[in-house]
């Protein structure tokens, strides 16, 4: 294979892993997929390992339990909430649902479990894998329809810090102008 020359350096392959440059013609993907971490599959493997002992001891009675880790893994891979400027796409274990932003009245975050969307028609829908900790993702992909309380807290903290810095600077400026009394 002929070697390629690039300026003063010899290149070993014509295929360089260069990321494509962004263009004004390619829209930024504003969709956020909120799902269970794929690391949860490690728990499924551990569950399979733990269930193998009873199965090896009494296959006729416990053989059916080997299907449980695979069902849990399928659930981990399937369940998600996709947030886009158009609305929410909810994927559960056995169903899918799309909700536009016009249908949503508000959100509720219970102590336990996933967030719930209150709909205009008075019903309530559970948002798979969305918790209060995922609110910044929900806010960034909603196009301003959902506010991020973490961002508001950060802005308030920055304003407070700026005010304290300004007060400190004015105190320094005020004490620097006062001459010290002479000890003579």
Give a quick set of tags describing it:
184 residues; alpha+beta; four-stranded antiparallel β-sheet; 5 helices; 9 strands; 20% strand
Question: Can you walk me through this structure?
Answer:
With 184 residues, the protein is an alpha+beta fold. It has a domain at 102-168. It has five helices and nine strands, in the order βββαααββββββαα. It has helices spanning 40-57, 59-62, 67-78, 135-141, 149-177; strands at 4-6, 9-11, 32-35, 80-84, 87-91, 96-100, 104-108, 116-119, 124-126. The strands form three sheets. It has a four-stranded antiparallel beta sheet with strand order 3-4-5-6. It has a three-stranded antiparallel beta sheet with strand order 7-8-9, with no helix packed on it. A two-stranded antiparallel sheet has the order 1-2. Strand 8 and strand 9 (124-126) form a beta hairpin. Helix 1 runs antiparallel to helix 3 (67-78). The radius of gyration is 29 Å and the shape is elongated. The model has no long low-confidence stretch (mean pLDDT 85).
């Amino acid at each position: 294979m002929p070697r390629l020359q690039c300026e003063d350096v010899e290149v070993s392959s014509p295929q360089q892993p260069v990321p494509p440059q962004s263009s004004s013609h390619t829209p930024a993907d504003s969709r956020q997929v909120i799902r269970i971490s794929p690391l949860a599959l490690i728990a499924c493997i551990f569950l399979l390992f733990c269930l193998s002992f009873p199965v090896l001891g009494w296959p006729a009675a416990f053989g059916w339990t080997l299907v449980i880790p695979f069902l849990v893994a399928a659930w981990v891979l399937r369940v998600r909430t996709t947030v886009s400027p158009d609305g929410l796409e909810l994927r559960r274990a056995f169903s899918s649902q799309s909700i536009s932003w016009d249908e949503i009245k508000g959100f509720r975050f219970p102590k336990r479990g996933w967030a719930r969307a209150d709909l205009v028609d008075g019903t309530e829908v559970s948002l798979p894998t969305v918790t209060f900790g995922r609110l910044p993702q929900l806010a960034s992909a909603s196009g301003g329809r959902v506010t991020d309380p973490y961002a508001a807290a950060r802005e308030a903290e920055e304003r407070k810090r700026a005010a304290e810095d300004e007060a400190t600077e004015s105190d320094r400026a005020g004490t620097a102008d006062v001459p010290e009394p002479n000890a003579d």
